[in-house]
């Protein structure tokens, strides 16, 4: 039994899923993996089921009927993990934009250095992004600066999706009250942890854009992340 599980949300990730699972399982530490699949037409879930025969004690699959957003996928994954005995629960993309070799660094930040939340940060030591067009780098970078300014969180990469949570953090956040479903979900989760005064640290990582499959980023997702932050901050004043 492992104390650590990595949640990987998927929608049409057949080109990446086997490789990312094997990369996680190749680490020196024993990690479990929960794939949360949103009924991928490309049969991503079927591939996971095939791999479960090889990794019956490490690999788990949560199938959802439809694609309803990254945030709802992660919340479903969090609830699944909290019903089990995992002490450290990770978020990670399926497309290798997050390097599986960095998992142990995020784990150590929580397990050894006593952080409550460890964020794989693209921006704490400059801009560590590979293969993105300059327009997308600037959008992401200044979106994080904007969120930092509005929320007053001392986090450089507020939109990061490579995160390790200690169990008690997720137990103390009302997951049913999380409003955002796109990438703003990542901001909201960090903000909820910040409001509860959990210790959040950033671990520098290099983010590499996907080489296989199709990006899920859209204009609506970006708008949610930018426009929703102000209302999230205002609402926090009335909930103190």
Automatic annotation (TrEMBL):
GO CC, sorted alphabetically, is: membrane
- Which CDD domains does the record cross-reference, listed alphabetically? DPM1_like (cd06442)
Please tell me whether the keyword Glycosyltransferase is annotated for this protein.
Answer: yes
Q: Which GO terms describe its biological process?
A: glycolipid biosynthetic process
User: Recorded GO terms, molecular function?
Assistant: dolichyl-phosphate beta-D-mannosyltransferase activity
The name this protein carries in UniProt is Polyprenol monophosphomannose synthase
Q: Which InterPro entries match?
A: DPM1-like (IPR039528), Glyco_trans_2-like (IPR001173), Nucleotide-diphossugar_trans (IPR029044)
Which family does the UniProt entry place this protein in?
Answer: Belongs to the glycosyltransferase 2 family.
Alphabetized, the UniProt keywords read:
Glycosyltransferase, Transferase
Glycosyltransferase 2-like domain location: 6-173
């Amino acid at each position: 039994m492992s104390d650590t599980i990595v949640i990987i949300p998927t929608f049409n990730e057949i080109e990446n899923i086997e490789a990312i699972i094997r990369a996680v399982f190749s680490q020196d530490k024993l990690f479990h993996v929960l794939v949360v699949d949103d009924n991928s037409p490309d049969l991503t879930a079927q591939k996971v089921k095939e791999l479960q025969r090889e990794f019956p004690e490490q690999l788990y699959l949560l199938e959802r009927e439809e694609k309803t957003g990254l945030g709802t996928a992660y919340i479903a994954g969090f609830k699944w993990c909290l019903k089990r005995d995992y002490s450290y629960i990770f978020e990670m993309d399926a497309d290798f934009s997050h390097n599986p070799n960095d998992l142990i660094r995020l784990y150590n930040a929580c397990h050894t250095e006593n952080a409550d939340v460890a964020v794989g940060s693209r921006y704490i030591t400059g801009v560590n992004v590979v293969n993105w067009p300059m327009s997308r780098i600037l959008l992401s970078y200044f979106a994080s600066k904007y969120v930092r300014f509005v929320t007053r969180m001392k986090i450089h990469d507020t939109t990061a999706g490579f995160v390790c949570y200690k169990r008690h953090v997720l137990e103390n956040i009302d997951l049913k009250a999380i409003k955002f479903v796109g990438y703003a979900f990542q901001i909201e989760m960090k903000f909820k942890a910040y409001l509860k005064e959990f210790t959040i640290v950033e671990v520098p990582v290099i983010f590499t854009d996907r080489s296989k499959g199709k990006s899920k980023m859209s204009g609506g997702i970006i708008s949610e992340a930018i426009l929703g932050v102000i209302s999230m901050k205002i609402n926090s004043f009335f909930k103190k």
